[in-house]
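User: What would this chain look like folded?
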Amino acid sequence: MSSAASAASAPHLGVAVSLTDQDAGIVEVAVAVEEVGLESLFLTEHSHVPVSRRDLLEDPFHARHRRLLDQFTALGAAAAVTSRLRLGTSVCVVPQHDPIQLAKQVATIDHISAGRFLFGVAAGWLHEELRNLGVEPSQRWDLMDEHLAAMKEIWTHEEAEFHGSLVDFEPLWMWPKPVQAPYPPVLVGGMGPRSLRLVAEHGDGWLPVIEDADELETGLTTLRRLCDERSRPMPEVTVCLDDLDKDLLLACGRHPVARIVVMAPTDDLAELRSFLTTVAALRHHLS
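Assistant: Here's the prediction, encoded as structure tokens.
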């Protein structure tokens, strides 16, 4: 669905969580989100926080990243206890993963969830984390470009091969193929010029974190131009908000967006349920 098409109806509402081993369990979180009637649940990713970045521990949001659950393992558990909820990554740092293995993980989650997976991706920003995982930060954009192209070959061909400057493999067989045809929607995160170029070239959707409605409008204008230059339709837009700001949420809803996702607290299940009820009630203001 293009963003223009999504403008005909109110955007869906969902939540994103940075879920740790000290929070409410993924099963309880996923069931609570589905029960309140929200459309989607996204999980964030960091494999670790390098000790050299002690500065990040001063920010409670980044301090949590030391303890995040693995996205795909947790989403598999969420898929098993839900039937309607769309499940996504917000975001998967693609350059940090082997593309063959990541293609398998994405296809498996889409299979387990019966086609409910949304593949949010980004190039990453924590240089020390990237280096620990064997990625030169200056190459992350080119790696992401080739990883996405290689994974699409695997998902869409019985015999897949790829020969790029950074990713290279001979013909291979891999199943399962994704349930969603030709593959789960690829939602490319980021607001910068390289991120927007990747949206225009690879994205089925754009997944920006928005702090100001004018910022969203500027990004949409740039993305339309980039898509027009490539003769591609405007992709679907999923807006992420770091906080539940009702005015900002409603302002974003006046733009052609398909989905608005709000970061939700998960320290306490009762607090989460209250938060989810508040978010769900905002649907009436978006219709």
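Residues 87 and 117 are 5 Å apart (CA to CA). If you want, I can go into more detail on any region.
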